[in-house]
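REQUEST FORM: STRUCTURE PREDICTION
Request ID: SP-0412
Submitted by: Lab K.M.
Chain count: 1
Length (residues): 202
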Amino acid sequence: MITYQETKKRFLDDVKLDVIEEKIEKKVFEKLHKKTAYNEVQSWMNSMQYMYKVMEDMKIPDDCEIAIEYRIPNSNKRVDFIISGEDEKGRESAVVIELKQWQEVKKVMSKEAIVKTRRHGKFVETTHPSYQVWSYVSMIEDYNEDVRKNKIRLYPCVYMHNYRPQRDDDLIDICYDFYIDKAPIFTRGDTKKLADFETKTQ
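STATUS: Completed
RESULT:
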C-alpha cells in the first residue's frame, strides 16, 4: 500500500510549500489508521528537504512517480522513498531509497549485517542500512504482483544525508561490502551522486 503518491513536480511543490509532512501524516492516518509520532513527523520535515534537493535535478523527469511510506505486502515494513519511471530502454524501473538521519556508526564484527548507531544518547545495535533496503526490495519482488508481472527492475540504495564519512569509516567497512554492493550508500554532500544514480536507472 502506497501512503503518499505524486509526480515529481507535485512532490517538489509540496516540499516548497512546507506541506509535505502534513500530507504524509494525513495519508498515514487515512490508509494505515495510524497516528504518527512527533519524531517521525520531524524526520519527514528534515529528510524531504534533502530529497527535494536531489529531485530538483533537471535530468530527473517531471512526470516520474514518487511514493513515500510504501508498506510492503504481507509485512509491517515501510519503504521511505520510491522513484519510479522507465529506464533508457523503456523498461519499468524504480529506485528504492532508505533514508537515515544517523550521524555515527560503529561496526559489529560478531554479527552478520549489524551495526551500532546512537539513539537517545547511547549506542544500540540495528541492521546495516544497505542490508535493510536490499531485504525490502527482496520482499517487494516476492510479494508485489505488479513488480513480478511487469518485471519492474528495482534498484535499492541508502541516503544518509546527515552523515559525514571518515577515513576507514565503520559504515563502509569491508565486512559490509556484500550489502553495499547490492545497495550503495550516499551520504552528506552526495546530492548530485544520488541524482545521477537515479537517472541511470530511470
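NOTES: The chain has a mean pLDDT of 93.
Reviewed by: T.R.
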